[in-house]
Design brief:
By secondary structure, the chain is α/β, with parallel strands linked by helices. It contains ten helices and 13 strands. The strands form three sheets. Strands 1, 2, 5, 6, 9, 10, 11, 12 and 13 form a nine-stranded parallel sheet that branches. A two-stranded antiparallel ribbon has the order 3-4. Strands 7-8 form a two-stranded antiparallel sheet. The longest helix has 15 residues. The chain is globular and about 50 Å long.
């Protein structure tokens, strides 16, 4: 499968607010439709967040997660990768409730503390669609995502027990050492899967080729090149340039989608995550690569299979 590229579509996330785009999926059915369209365009994985269907506020409702996952599974064979990011004030136990219920093939894993500097977005708008939006954006001035070493142990043990492969979200160089520690504790199956995540938010790695090469080299040195597969995600206008660079470097996986950018080219609003899937698929085609199917992705990443999930 040397000529295969796994494309992940991050459907709605928790960064963008409804004021930023009329196309941001909000309701369960909108999230499901966007995920299926991304699959039809060539995505093999869908990264899933859910929102309050009334006002679009990011939430972590187990019922909404179950509805979205079940409806997607009815329509296609996407690998579904729900978030464990949850709300900024949620406990580890609360964030794990949907994962324990769903027992998905994959899920996200933020192994180290990081800042979620989205407060600058608030200054771009004089008016908001919903009352919660401005307060939500500015909340991160006073809150750091808190994963402690104890939290990591809880997450890792849970994922092992339910045979869910974590995707480690790596926001800076030091985060690689957290993964190394969990490897030494025998709390992850090998090879681990990393996703290098780039800004433009305050507190994240600046999106540049230099930093992408640096973090990839760090992972090779600390973990051993044979011990990990890797993906790249970048926000805003950097989405396609940084993921394209990753493809040229040999990444097995790249992520696009409305969670990371609401645009599909300069000044062009993306009407669906599929718009960005098609863009990166075209880049890959010029490099002699074709999108991996969901079944091929399961083989490449060593996943347990869609028949072993609980939705």
């Amino acid at each position: 499968m040397d000529n295969k590229l796994i494309i992940t579509a991050a459907i709605t996330g928790s960064v963008h607010i409804p004021t930023m785009s009329d196309y941001l999926p909000i309701t369960p059915d909108e999230i499901v439709d966007d995920a299926v369209k991304a699959w039809e365009a060539g995505a093999a994985i869908a990264h899933i967040h859910v929102r309050n269907p009334e006002d679009g506020m990011p939430v972590s409702s187990p019922d909404l997660f179950l509805e979205v996952h079940s409806k997607i599974k009815e329509r296609c064979d996407l690998v579904l990768l729900p978030t464990t990011g949850g709300g900024m004030n949620q406990t580890t136990e609360e964030k794990l409730i949907p994962i324990k219920q769903l027992e998905p093939e994959m899920c996200s894993f933020d192994p180290a503390p990081f800042n979620f500097g989205i407060f600058q977005i608030a200054s771009r708008f004089k008016e908001f669609k919903h009352k919660w939006e401005k307060e939500y954006l500015e909340l991160c001035k006073n809150v750091t995502f808190r994963p402690t070493f104890s939290d990591d142990l809880i997450y890792a043990k849970t994922f092992l027990e339910i045979d869910t492969k974590p995707e480690f979200e790596i926001y800076e160089l030091g985060h690689v050492s957290y993964v190394k520690w969990l490897m030494e504790e025998n709390l992850v199956k090998m090879p681990v899967h990393l996703q290098f995540v780039f800004g433009p938010m305050v507190g994240w790695m600046a999106p540049s080729v230099k930093h992408l090469v640096l973090i990839h080299d760090e992972a090779k040195e600390v973990l051993g090149e044979e011990n990990f597969t890797w993906s790249v995600a970048a926000g805003g206008k950097f989405q396609i340039p940084i993921t394209s660079t990753a493809i040229a470097m040999g990444a097995q996986n790249v992520r696009v989608g409305l969670e990371d950018s609401v645009y599909a080219g300069r000044g062009v609003m993306a009407k669906a995550s599929a718009d960005q899937v098609l863009m990166i698929k075209n880049v890959a085609k010029e490099m002699g690569l074709v999108p991996a199917t969901s079944e091929e992705t399961r083989q490449i990443l060593g996943l347990k299979g869609l028949d072993k999930v609980k939705f």
